Amino acid sequence: MKEGINVLSLFDGMSCGQIALNKLGVKVNNYFACEIDKYAMQVTQHNFPDTIQLGDVQFVTKETFGNHKIDLVIGGSPCQGFSFAGKMLNFDDPRSKLFFEYVRLVKDLKPKYFLLENVKMKQESKDIITEYMGVEPIEINSALVSAQTRKRLYWTNIPNVEQPKDKGILLKDIIESGMAGEDPVKHTDRNRRHLKDIEGKSLCTSATMYKGAGNNGMTLIQVDDKLRHPEATKKGYAEAGDGEGLDLTFPQSKTRRGRAMKDKSNCLTAASHEMGVVESLPDKSQTIKSQYYKSSKSNFERKGTYHATGIKQNDLTWRKLTPLECERLQTVDDGYTLVLNENGKQLVSDSQRYKMLGNGWTIDVITHIMKNMEL
């Protein structure tokens, strides 16, 4: 086996190819990445600081690599021009034309292996790509290795690639429990299309899912019947089920703890009107809290707190998936896209995390393909 390889990743995004190679234990001498999204690059450098960023693929040539022989070229050229979910502009779309940059570099660099990923598309576009790549694509649905339905085409000269075995992973296996302070989502016919049972699979993640449901690909799930409120503990929240209580005294306090009241009530104080009991009310509302006199939709949706509403209404019990849950849908390690500074400040917004995850690859599909490389 060769002592390490040189890799060129085009349209590298958050470096899913590098995650896959690392997971397989493949030694990489040099990992060259072409990417222009500063947030995706920030996540890459945070996790793989030795990545060599080359910038815009259009300015990369064979001479860029000097004496380094490139062994593997990978990439998923921007798919918006091909996608059934897009406008189907095909090769007339400037983003789709970047495919030919991939073809140019594979031709010039002559790597031992190449891997090109793209979306399902019109047969005409598929045939053109197949002609240029010289191999037929294999279609793999990420649902076989994750909790996400994501059908993608893979053109590669890596030998003996077959369908992966179904791991039987469902949404219920990847969702976070106890999501204190998650913004609820309104019941609408438009959102209903995105509501998925946790016993099934999610929708395909997309680059626009950070905008929510509607036509943006965000999966919605049903919130459970427990009431939660943030508190200063390792868990980060107190929770109460039917018949149990929560002490909501000083609801915005960042130091208060011991809010859950399971068997006994907390000590009564002058502020005890802030304590309440969760009660199931069929056909009315799911939970009642002590501060019902302050109930309003706008307050219910205030991020990070639930103290300003009295009723958890039936039409406010859906939520979108979290960035961590979307990492799990793409079989990315928990927290990979979470970049914090030394003071714990988040440097890459959740919106950008959703975007790069939607643009990314399902890691366990890529490792399934790459494991057949003979290096």
Compact overview of the structure:
The chain is α/β, with parallel strands linked by helices.
Task: Give an overview in words.
- The chain is an alpha/beta fold.
- Helix content is 20%, strand content 17%.
- It is built from nine helices and 17 strands.
- It has helices spanning 16-24, 38-47, 99-109, 123-133, 189-192, 297-300, 323-329, 350-359, 363-370; strands at residues 5-10, 28-34, 52-53, 72-75, 113-119, 138-141, 151-156, 184-185, 220-222, 227-230, 237-240, 245-247, 260-261, 275-277, 287-288, 311-312, 318-320.
- The strands form five sheets. It has a seven-stranded mixed beta sheet, sandwiched between helices. A three-stranded antiparallel beta sheet has the order 8-17-9, with no helix packed on it. Strands 13-12-14 form a three-stranded antiparallel beta sheet, with no helix packed on it.
- Strand 1 (5-10), helix 1 and strand 2 form a beta-alpha-beta unit.
- Helix 1 crosses helix 9.
- The chain is globular.
- The model is unreliable at 83-89 and 263-316 (pLDDT under 50).
